[in-house]
User: Which sequence fits this backbone?
């Protein structure tokens, strides 16, 4: 069966989940059993590493360790000035787009390329676990990501060989997983406060339909702001510390210490902080922390109030509040949530896993297997066109359920005007220039009539993927022009196509090669274990016929290993597993009997015999 | 700048634009070409069908054309149609089915958005009544109502200029709340008239005026919120 995986591509950690045969969803763990993959890429002279091994190289002077690349995703170099100030790795301006130098390989990597390395790692993790090639995925993004950021995320998926069926909002994904697990109907408020972004969604769950009523957020608000506020308080308190913190490793130490203190204060009322190497010895009380984070809590609630206003909902009618993201553990934040909603707080779900699980649920819906569930999502930002005076005229207001269509009539401004420029905009500001430009096109061939006479009908159509198509039609002549808005963010379609070509040249071989290497390794283990088992058992446990069947299969497996077909190797392993299964059971029984009769346990075949 | 479009008054309402008729004027299924009613799904080949011309927002959701609507009925109708038409439930089907599901789901969303808000719903209801019968379209408020609103506005502006925003708000609410109660009473009255002897022009005009007045008063509330403290 074809698997569509769900991926949470996070700022600090990423995860992948899939739908199991029994219909539940599960996060896929790595070989060491860890569900999380640090969203870190290490560019070393001897190679590129992703995840835990990349993170371990943070202090290696030879290596550029790229983290939090999500903050740069889909934004121009100029837009990322604030983010770059907090990053310890170099970011250069490559034709207006941020890019990270990889000197060892004589190239510059854009944020989608960094993202694609993380996604490719998760993809192969999934392929390994599922035993088949995976080519389709649903990826989550913060609700407040604009079109460019969403498109960049999609491009990252494509570069990792994944057809991204849908980009869904993180809080919505969390609610999908949550609502599915609890089977509770009602109106829910979802807070997703991560390291760097804050998302708020209001969502109604009713008999399997998840209707997003409103969403809002702040792309520059998260736990790292709390840490920074704590550090700033130390700077003003401890003379000379600020100067020392210009060095990145000092900054790093302070940041970690601030984070530790913050976490401790969710439990204790006061925490002492001591860093002998920096001559820091101070105390932080919960009261002081509350005061430090208050401006951020206030900012978060500005978004909340906007969303509640948009949906026309009274906070008291909310049945439950779902908390997602590690930073929702902050006590002052929880207090503010309780005060505002007075509703039950639900945080029983693991905030780390729930977003990926929700993505897997949506993946399941899109693969056509779940007709009982449906997610009705909204467009997070208003869409419209520029009209005279540089004013934005909104056609589809924010928080409109998608798919959506809207039509509006426009006309000309001067006599005899034969062309109109349709400038498509996204955003909430009144003036076109303050909003994001999504594209422009010209409708020509308008009959030369007095100003105000032509009737130009502009249609906006947003599909379930949030892709916007704009059509303009002059009604008297039927003359029309249209454009499908491909969100852009600096990397053009052609750039992505070039990168894709490179990626594709390797992608197919990559999977085959990986499968071959992995299955050969597995075969080695299985063969070794089987051989050991055969050597320890006599005819009483293993009949001659059975033994020769196993030996024959071992031969088949060995010859498959000499070939290059990884799938064949894997199949032969499976057959050998089946043949040795009864032997493994008997061995287990014998050990149990012997153990019960006081004899020492013999060594069991480690992997082979009992292999599933 | 000369090439910029400017808004033209009067937005067109969205109409189902798929033509369900064949050349003889019969309504047929696009797929199996059997003659069918204006149904959501073809009874013989079970393919989704584009909405026919006669499907206004009430008929798109298959709910009675009434001013007073039980919100639970509205939501369950909306969810039922969403399950049927949402593109997520038509992934991997033919291009035609995906196209129909996209167009229908967009209309279902718009219908719900319009009918969910009682005042938007009433405006839509009125525009249909007038459109159908060619009745006068424009709502002009009687001068005494306009005067009343202007007086109220002067009063609230004077209050907000003294920083007495909450007083200004309660002053407006004191007019708005009874007005909304009157509007709801109109809903019930007109609904029962529609079922019995029919709705008269004067009933519609009366409701339209109250809605217009409410819109003005709503604006006053917004002005108070925006007024500097």
Assistant:
């Amino acid at each position: 069966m074809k698997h569509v995986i769900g991926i949470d591509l996070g700022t600090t950690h990423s995860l992948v989940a899939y739908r199991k045969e029994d219909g539940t969803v599960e996060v896929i763990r790595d070989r060491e059993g860890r569900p999380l993959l640090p969203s870190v890429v290490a560019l070393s002279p001897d190679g590129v590493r992703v995840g835990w091994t990349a993170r371990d190289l943070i202090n290696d002077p030879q290596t550029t360790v790229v983290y939090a690349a999500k903050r740069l995703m889909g934004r121009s170099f100029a837009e990322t000035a604030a983010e770059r100030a907090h990053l310890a790795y170099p970011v250069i301006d490559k034709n207006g787009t941020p890019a990270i130098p990889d000197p060892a390989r004589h190239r510059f990597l854009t944020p989608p390329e960094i993202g694609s390395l993380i996604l490719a790692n998760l993809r192969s993790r999934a392929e390994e676990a599922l035993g088949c090639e995976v080519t389709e995925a649903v990826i989550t993004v913060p609700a407040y990501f604009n079109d460019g950021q969403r498109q960049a995320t999609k491009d990252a998926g494509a570069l990792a060989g994944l057809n991204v069926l849908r980009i869904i909002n993180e809080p919505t994904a969390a609610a999908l997983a949550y609502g599915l697990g609890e089977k509770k109907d009602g109106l829910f408020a979802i807070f997703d406060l991560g390291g760097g972004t804050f998302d708020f969604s209001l969502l109604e769950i009713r008999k399997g339909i998840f209707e997003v009523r409103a969403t809002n957020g702040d792309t520059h608000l998260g736990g790292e702001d709390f840490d920074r506020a704590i550090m700033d308080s130390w700077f003003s308190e401890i003379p000379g510390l600020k100067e020392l913190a210009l060095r990145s490793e000092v900054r790093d130490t302070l940041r970690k210490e601030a984070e530790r203190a913050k976490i401790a204060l969710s439990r204790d009322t006061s925490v002492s902080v001591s860093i002998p190497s920096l001559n820091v010895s101070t105390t932080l009380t919960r009261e002081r922390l509350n005061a430090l984070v208050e401006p951020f809590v206030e900012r978060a609630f500005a978004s909340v109030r906007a969303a509640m206003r948009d949906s026309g909902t009274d906070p008291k009618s909310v049945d439950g509040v779902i908390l997602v993201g590690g930073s929702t553990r902050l006590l002052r934040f929880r207090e503010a949530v309780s005060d505002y909603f007075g509703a039950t707080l639900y945080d029983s779900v693991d905030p780390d896993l729930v977003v990926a699980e929700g993505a897997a649920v949506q993946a399941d819906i899109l693969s056509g297997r779940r007709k009982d569930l449906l997610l009705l999502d909204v467009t997070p930002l208003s869409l419209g066109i520029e009209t005279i005076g540089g004013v934005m005229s909104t056609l589809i207001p924010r928080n409109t359920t998608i798919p959506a269509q809207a039509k509006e009539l426009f006309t000309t401004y001067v006599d005899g005007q034969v062309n109109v420029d349709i400038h498509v905009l996204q955003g909430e500001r009144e003036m076109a220039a303050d909003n994001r430009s999504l594209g422009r096109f010209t409708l020509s061939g308008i009959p030369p009539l007095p100003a105000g006479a032509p009737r130009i009908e502009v249609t906006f159509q947003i599909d379930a993927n949030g892709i916007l198509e704009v059509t303009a039609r002059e009604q008297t002549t039927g003359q029309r022009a249209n454009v499908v808005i491909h969100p852009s963010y600096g990397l053009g379609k052609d750039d992505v196509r070039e990168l894709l070509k490179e990626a594709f040249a390797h992608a197919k071989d990559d999977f085959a090669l990986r499968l071959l290497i992995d299955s050969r390794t597995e075969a080695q283990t299985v063969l070794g274990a089987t051989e050991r088992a055969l050597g320890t058992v006599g005819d009483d446990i293993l009949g001659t016929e059975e033994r020769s069947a196993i030996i024959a299969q071992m031969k088949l497996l060995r010859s498959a290993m000499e070939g290059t077909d990884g799938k064949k190797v894997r199949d032969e392993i499976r057959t050998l597993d089946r043949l040795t299964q009864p032997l493994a059971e008997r061995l287990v029984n014998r050990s149990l009997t012997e153990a019960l009769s006081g004899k020492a346990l013999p060594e069991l075949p480690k992997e082979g015999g009992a292999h599933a | 700048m000369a090439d910029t479009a400017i808004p033209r008054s009067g937005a067109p309402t969205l109409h189902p634009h798929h033509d369900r008729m064949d050349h003889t004027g019969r309504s047929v299924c696009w797929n199996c070409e059997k003659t069918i009613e204006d149904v959501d799904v073809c009874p013989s080949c079970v393919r989704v069908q584009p909405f026919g011309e006669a499907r206004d927002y009430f008929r798109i959701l298959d709910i009675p054309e009434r001013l007073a609507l039980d919100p639970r009925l509205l939501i369950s109708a909306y969810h039922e149609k969403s399950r049927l038409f949402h593109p997520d439930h038509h992934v991997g089907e033919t291009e035609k089915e995906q196209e129909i599901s996209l167009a229908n789901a967009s209309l279902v969303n718009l219908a719900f958005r319009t009918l969910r808000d009682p005042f938007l719903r009433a405006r839509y209801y009125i525009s249909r009544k007038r459109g159908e019968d060619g009745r006068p379209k424009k709502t002009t408020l009687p001068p005494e109502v306009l005067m009343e609103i202007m007086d109220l506005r002067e009063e609230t502006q004077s209050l907000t200029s003294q920083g007495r925003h909450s007083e200004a708000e309660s002053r407006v609410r004191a007019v708005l709340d009874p007005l909304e109660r009157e509007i709801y009473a109109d809903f019930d009255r007109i609904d029962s008239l529609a079922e019995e002897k029919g709705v008269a022009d004067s009933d519609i005009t009366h409701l339209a005026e109250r809605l217009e007045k409410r819109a003005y008063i709503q604006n006053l509330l917004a002005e108070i919120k925006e007024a500097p403290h």
Q: What stands out?
A: Chain A has four domains: 4-221+294-376, 223-293, 381-484, 494-596. The radius of gyration of chain A is 29 Å. Chain A touches chain B through 50 residues (CB under 8 Å). The domain at 4-221+294-376 of chain A is CATH 3.30.420.40 (Nucleotidyltransferase; domain 5).
